[in-house]
Each structure stands twice: as C-alpha cells, then as structure tokens.
Specification:
The chain is mainly α. The chain has one domain (3-38, 50-225). Helix content is 50%, strand content 0%. The protein has eleven helices and no strands. The chain has helices at 3-18, 30-33, 62-75, 85-88, 90-99, 106-124, 133-144, 156-172, 184-189, 200-204, 221-225. It is elongated, with a radius of gyration of 19 Å.
Length: 226
C-alpha cells in the first residue's frame, strides 16, 4: 500500500471514529449522514441522462456501478488484512440507498458520474474505470479541489463530498443497510457491535474488545417481522 493510500485510509477511519461511527449498532454516522438534499439550480432539466436507464442491482447500471466501485475503492483502498470499499460492499450500500432513502440523489449521481467520465476522457483519453490508480487519484483530487472542468450541477466538490460521505456510511453503518459486509468496517475500527454482555475483565481492559459474536440490526429483523 502506498503512502498516499495509507494517508487516505487513516483520514477516513479517523474521521469515522471521530464522528461517532462506533457509537452504536444501528448507526449511520450522524455527522456524516447529514448530507442535505441536493437539487439542481432553477431551470435545470432533471431528465435522465441518455444511456443511464438503470439495470444494475437496485438502481445503478453496469457502467455506473463499475465507476462507483472504482471511485469508492480509491477513497477507501483495501490492503492485505485491511478491508477496503470493495471488501465492505460499499457499492451495494450506495446502490440500495439510491433506490430507497437517497432516491432524491439519483439524478445527482447520474449527472455527477457522466461529468466524471467526461473529465477523465478529456484529460487522459480514457474512462475513469480504465485509468490506473495513480491517475484515478489525480482525477479525484481535481474533484476534491474543485479543479475538474465540465461539472455544473452537481459541482465537482459537491459530487466528491457526497460520494465520500456515502463511502464512509457504506463502510461503517450497520450491515442491515447493505454495506459493512462481514462487519469488516467495524472490525477495522475495533467496534464490537451489539453484545449481550461484557465480562468484568472486558470492562476493565484497556485493549479494544475483539471477541465474538458481533451482531447488528439484522439480528433483530426476524423479531420485527414476527
């Protein structure tokens, strides 16, 4: 893992912990989930972008899903023994969220992904997913800094900030929402999930609790249905 990847991982993990990502088993990190609804400027059309008609999973088509998967993996890169966005199922989380709770951001994502790909092609003559990791990082940095051209609504920075927020939610929210596969995000930050009880020794220990089982909201789902 490069120093660039290590610093990005350290930043995202540190931000998640600082925002309360290990505060409870049913969380979507409060400080991260407060992304206000994004709306186009007055007079802007909201018709679907040609060629983006769904067809993948719950909302994303194959092309957009590949772009989101590549983008989120660069935001939270995996490494041996350290799960990344692909390992945690962040793509699945975002796909499900855009078909449900974040349905108001569908056009935001369509347009943002189209602008992202156009910028990649104009700058490097390849789509974002075909760029090597170093150039993908350069594209993402241009978005973060507001230097990427071709973005109107959403702006480059707004798109970057939203995808980063959703990447962190997909990494650290309860697995019931479709991400944090196999509790990989919780394991990464040492969060044990909901436990029926802690022993006296556990309570006195200064080390992170690493015991099993780790459970989340999905363990309660059968009871709610019944």
């Amino acid at each position: 893992m490069t120093k660039h990847n290590e610093s990005r991982r350290a930043f995202l993990v540190g931000t998640a912990v600082g925002a309360g990502a290990v505060a409870g088993a049913g969380l979507v990190p409060a400080a991260l989930a407060q992304t206000p609804p994004q709306h186009p400027p007055a007079g802007a059309t909201t018709a679907p972008v040609p060629g983006h008609s769904g067809g993948h999973g719950a909302f994303l088509n194959d092309e957009d899903a590949a772009t989101v998967a590549a983008f989120t993996e660069r935001l939270m890169p995996g490494a041996p023994g350290k799960p990344g966005a692909r390992d945690a199922g962040v793509l699945n989380y975002i796909d499900l969220a855009l078909a449900g709770a974040y349905a108001d951001l569908q056009d935001f994502y369509r347009r943002g992904l189209t602008a992202l790909d156009a910028y990649s092609r104009n700058t490097y003559k390849e789509s974002f997913v075909r760029l090597d990791p170093a150039r993908q990082d350069e594209v993402i940095a241009a978005l973060e800094q507001g230097k990427a051209t071709g973005f109107t609504w959403p702006t480059a920075q707004a798109f970057f900030n939203t995808v980063r927020t959703h990447t962190m939610e997909g990494m650290f929210a309860d697995p019931i929402y479709g991400g944090n596969k196999d509790f990989s995000g919780w394991r990464l930050v040492g969060f044990p999930g909901a436990q029926p009880a802690f022993s006296a020794a556990d309570m006195k220990s200064k080390d992170a609790y690493a015991g099993a089982p780790i459970t989340g909201l999905q363990a309660q789902a059968p009871m709610r249905r019944g």
